[in-house]
Amino acid sequence: MKWVISGETLNQSSALTFSVFYRELRNLIQLIPVAYAYPVNYSMYGNIDFGTVKGMSLAYDLRRTGNVRLTANYTLQFADGTGSSSTSGVNLIQSGNPNLRTAVPLSFDVRHQIQTTFDFRYDEGKFYNGPKLFGKNFLENSGLNVVMIANSGTPYSRSSFFTADAQGSGRPILKGSINGSRLPFQFRVNVRVDKTFTLEYGKKNGEDERKTADLQIYCLIQNVLNAKNVVGVYRATGNAADDGYLEAATSQAQISNQVDPLSFVDLYAAKVYNPGNYARPRIIRFGAILNF
Hints:
Elements: E1 2-10, E2 14-34, E3 42-65, E4 68-81, H1 90-94, E5 104-105, E6 112-121, E7 142-151, E8 155-156, E9 158-159, E10 174-175, E11 181-182, E12 186-201, E13 211-222, H2 252-256, H3 261-272, E14 283-291
Antiparallel strand pairs: 1-2, 2-3, 3-4, 4-5, 4-6, 6-7, 7-12, 8-11, 9-10, 12-13, 13-14
């Protein structure tokens, strides 16, 4: 079930839209324990999870004015539920506890989202108002598009015990509440530059008209600032590059018992630096689109 209430103010060149939304998630799949079963207890999937997504959105749209178009959007969202996936309750089951129906922030809950799009474009022919080079409209049918995206981090569960996460060993101990901590804020800028050329093809005589096609050449740069956005952290430290195991007092005895402690520390430090904890770096793509 989803409810959306919105309002809009307009003038000749822009629009401001305000929306309030509410959505219910019902009968989501989750593992449940079956007690006193014969011959042994077991687990199965059942439709027991639920959640709600509510918030508000404010959008501004500046329609094409001269060469410029601008859109901006801000969304405030609260996504809470009893489970983020079908296996969220597996730890409760393994510890001998029943499924607890307590609403917590869902793993995909992004509290603040901001997106701005700026588009600057030159037209063609008599509508061209750009610079000229040797009398030619060399920027005709070309444009620049800049998209800026910022959002707050998703939630995760903090741990109060340092474990050897790089080795996949150890069991974290919950610190605070489930999904009670947040990843850092993320920010990225994508830039696209393109130019369209008109191509003519076909027969050239009095009876047959020449056909036209549009060839667009573009360059797309994602994360142009090469921002180091964190998408995953180690639960004990909240750090994307260090799980705290090497410095923890409880780990020193295990480290000293290794065959070569210094080598173990170096290799462990290299292993714990997981590139998967960061979003993709700057990516540059060149391409062409042919429309005919």
